[in-house]
Design goal:
Blueprint lengths: L1 E6 L2 E6 L8 H10 L1 H10 L1 E3 L8 H21 L9 H10 L4 H28 L8 H23 L4 H15 L5 H9 L6 H33 L5 H8 L7 E3 H26 L22 H12 L2 H16 L1 H4 L1 H4 L5 H23 L4
Antiparallel strand pairs: 1-2, 3-4
Helix pairs in contact: 3-5, 3-11, 4-5, 5-6, 5-11, 6-7, 6-9, 7-8, 12-13, 12-16
Bound molecules: protoporphyrin IX containing FE (HEM).
The site of protoporphyrin IX containing FE has 26 residues, from helix 3, helix 5, helix 6 and helix 9.
Amino acid sequence: MGRISNSAGKGKIETKSSYLTNSKIFKWFGDRIDLDGILEFMYHKTVPHHKFSIWYYFGGISLYLFLVQVITGILLLLYYKPTAESAYESVQYIVTQVPFGWLVRSIHSWAANLFIFFAFVHMFSVFLMKAYRKPRELTWISGIALLFLAMGFGFSGYLLPWNQLAYLATNVGTNFAGMVPFIGQWLLEFLRGGPEVTAATLTRFFGFHIAILPGITTIIITIHLVFVQRMGMSTPISIEKQIAEGKTRKIEIPFFPNFILRDIMAWTLALGLLVLLASLFPWELGEKADILKPAPPHIRPEWYFVFMYQTLKYVPKLLGVLGFALAGFIWVFLPFLDKKSNLGQRNRLYTIIGVVVIIYMVVLTLIGYFAPGE
Ligand code: HEM
């Protein structure tokens, strides 16, 4: 394994096995892009190791699933046709005629859902470990932006096969937007490309899904990862306390190769789960959208919106929308409100709030699926 020393301000690598660094190709690239500096950074970076370390893998899994989305999405683009006349037929062609087309489509759809699921897991684990506290406020805020973008990907992608279920779910979803005070009607028409969900909505959603969202997401993921790299991984307050009281030792493992190999193992497990779900439960296509067909009862949006949809059945719509807007606002600026955690003190109140939010979201989602009511 390589060791690095920095002599006279210029990275110089001393390796026991200098097989890699002595190779001609390494030297060629090294002269042009300072590979020594990159290696030096990788060898020196460490990750805290403690009983909660498992939660450090979920950001990486989200990143991995995003990359799977990009690759499978590009493959689908080779055959997909974004018009109301031929979108459904083109997806039908992909899943019946194109070799492995059904698998690529199924992986793309499952990965979209797992991406959102693991981004939620990552967010709540970061929340419960209070990793948002100073100096990681901006990492938290950029993370929330990523979660919204991930939901935007799911929402816009869902309509693209132009099937009946997606058509109805898009009606429901865009109706949410219409409830926002003052700008609701404008927002609804902006999303739909008119007052109703029509072929114009499909064109718009296609644009959002393959150009606007990927562009913005790539930029924000880069910013998020730069923040994570600059600040390093945080250690939970409880572990910091135990270290200070001498009850446990501070253990750090090298990022390269120890942590990255574990990351790769987590990605392999995620890939296994993905392929299992995609091949055992291929994503269905359903019937082609028929704008004139009446909506069946108990229609609901995608699972990650169900808790909001269900809540709006129990409280006046305006109150519900304002409540979610306020809760979202507080959630974004949480690192600035949780003063106690910022001082390195345990804050049980915020832990309880996080647990209550998780229970609320899970229970309301389950009700939405199993006892939706009116
Ligand atoms: C949706 C796409 C996302 C991707 C691809 C992503 C990626 C990552 C990665 C690779 C890490 C380092 C490893 C880890 O801590 O798991 C990380 C850390 C972090 N992420 Fe995310 N993340 C995403 C969403 C979020 C969300 C929704 C939040 C919270 C609102 C968030 C907040 C953070 C914070 C605070 C850290 C630092 C953790 C620490 O220092 O202990 N991220 N993210």
